[in-house]
Amino acid sequence: MCGMTSDMSPRVRHDPPVVRPTRQDEVAAAGSELIGGPIGRWAGAGHSLLTPVQVVALVAIGMFALGMVQKIPCYDWAWFRGVNSQYTHACYSDIPHLYLGRGFADGLVPYFDRLSGDMEYLEYPVLTGLFMQVAAWLTLPVEGSVQHREQFYWMANAGMLLVCTAVIAVCVARTHRHRPWDALLVALAPAFALTATINWDLFAVALTAAAMLMWSRSRPLAFGVLIGLATAAKLYPVLLLGPLLLLCWRAGRWREYGAAVFGAAGAWLAVNLPVMLLAPQGWKKFYTFSQERQIDFGSFWVIITQRSGKSLETGTVNMLAALLMLVLCAGIAALTLTAPRRPRFAQLAFLVVAAFIVTNKVYSPQYVLWLIPLAALARPRWRDFLIWQAGEVMYFLGIWMHLAYTMGGDKHQGLPPEGYQTAIVVHLAATLYLCAVVVRDILTPERDPVRLDGSDDPSGGVLDGAPDVFVLGQAAHPPWHAAHRPEGPQVEWGAARE
Q1: Is there a domain that residue 206 lies in?
Q2: Which residue, 81, 69, 133, is CA-closest to 107?
Q3: Cross-referenced InterPro entries, in alphabetical order (predicted)?
Q4: End-to-end C-alpha distance for the chain, whole angstroms
Q5: What secondary structure letter does DSSP report for 74?
Q6: How many domains does the chain have?
């Protein structure tokens, strides 16, 4: 009886064919001329040696390798021979510096052993600390100078981050099953290659991408576990539970949301509780450091303080940033519950993480990694994506040139404060532009590129095709998609796909 509906009629359902961006996206079609033109009718019909997912993964690995090549001046000498050179060559990385600065070279155990200096303990979440420690264990057998060991530590981390890159590429390619080529946005993102080995953010990004894949496969508990682990590596992934709450509220999917929250809380506690109990001072360092950290590079708060010539108290900035974030989240909530058609999960995930980034008191250049996979799922159009990436690359160059200016002594070779403020504005404007386009897609869902083939929410899992049970405003009328579902074989939008 599993193949019959309640009226004994056969259940017929076919997934949409694979979407080829070169057939839908003018920029993708134009760019494809470099490799022979738009994809042909025989592609993907058993005549290709590689699947789209494999191609995406290989391209991502190749771009990651190019990013490593870009760091060669620093790897060879600039990390070790003067501070300014690593900025003028735009190849800075935290990894080799923290190998010494956080006690890994001395065999200190993160969170348990106290550091010399003001930092006292490692200021990273527990799972990132474990990632760093594993790389230190791999470096332990290496003999030679401190410089040689720092180089090997960076290489060990780069190898582990390369695995994270492959995971991200595969997960994004498989999240929207019939749109695997959208993951090329991630694989070819210039900001991804440039920032991948600055810090350890890719670990949390990989866990988050895997979580998004699990949700798209209607596995809320696995999603929650991965989000909990990602939050144990970086704080931002927990933000995804907010928009998911709104979507599950609108669709009445409380059981699935409860499973996700249970999995997230359980996984986070399983990782954090041992360190929390055995080394409480070291464990809480990340959270106290985040609260006590002053206004730093990349935020619009920097522009305010530099333009006004007045410093702002850290507590005041924390409160104002939190209020701004709450206001933006309230706006996202209103958008979710009043939109004519329920927004896609990836759209809201991108918006809430972007809201956190633009209101935060610091924006490190590697934070762009948080948004790249979400952007590829939320707005898979090359023109808009490349406009945003251009702004991020300009900021990447701007911060290093500004540090070269401030750290270069009396020479002041680099970007002065006014120029750096311009770079910040460009980064913020590019991010807000992409947010505006995503909001436009939510308000006019017929313009959403993911929904052009009649899909509802390929990354939505149990939300995909589910009817609304709670809406506000104009959305209280019959759902937009109820009158626009395609006729024909695809009659069960919310059916399980595996």
Answers
A1: yes
A2: 133
A3: GT87, UCP010361
A4: 18
A5: I
A6: 1
